[in-house]
Amino acid sequence: xxxxxxxxxxxxxxxxxxxxxxxxxxxxxxxxxxxxxxxxxxxxxxxxxxxxxxxxxxxxxxxxxxxxxxxxxxxxxxxxxxxxxxxxxxxxxxxxxxxxxxxxxxxxxxxxxxxxxxxxxxxxxxxxxxxxxxxxxxxxxxxxxxxxxxxxxxxxxxxxxxxxxxxxxxxxxxxxxxxxxxxxxxxxxxxxxxxxxxxxxxxxxxxxxxxxxxxxx
Length: 217
Ligand code: GRF
Description:
Layout: E1 4-10, H1 15-23, E2 31-38, H2 44-51, E3 56-58, H3 67-80, E4 85-88, H4 97-102, E5 107-111, H5 123-130, E6 134-141, E7 151-158, H6 165-188, E8 193-195, E9 198-200, E10 211-212
Parallel strand pairs: 1-2, 1-4, 2-3, 4-5
Antiparallel strand pairs: 5-6, 6-7, 7-10, 8-9
Helix pairs in contact: 1-6
This protein binds 5-O-phosphono-beta-D-ribofuranosylamine.
5-O-phosphono-beta-D-ribofuranosylamine binds near residues 13, 14, 15 and 176.
């Protein structure tokens, strides 16, 4: 089995990164984590990746004159490591259309809300302020428009009366750790196809409607 050489791009603690690294340890997982790359040399996730035996690199956005120069360096690093696929996991820089088009159909992102609701930042605060009863997270392909792009997987979380942004965020994060490996598995194995804005072909199970598609394992 050829495994898709995948880079995880992070800016911070890297808990989603850890869930992807753990999932990719399974011998039948269709992607291998070949690189963890951060725009912040001090990102705590880099040490965790190193401890897990993964190649790490930092491309510090602050030393570049502009976004294009920064992205060309990122791209060079991805080329050196022969990367086929990118998972953004808490990567806090916006890309130019040039970079996104290079990776169109080969780059996923995880967002802590049920898109298309709550694009952008502070999603848990905004969900609580709006009084919604169901919140969640989304894995989607990256397109030039922020927090848009075909949705691969979502998980819903109930909002409880006593929730704070922290408690709600913690339950959403636990679901992020479920759906990101699931989505990468589906995409890397070729189990799904993109038609327009829809990702089709994954089997859903009607008995567990809160996570879709439903993980088999
Ligand atoms: C997650 O909530 C993710 O959805 C968002 O940024 C956060 C990253 O957390 N894009 P971590 O670094 O994976 O722990």
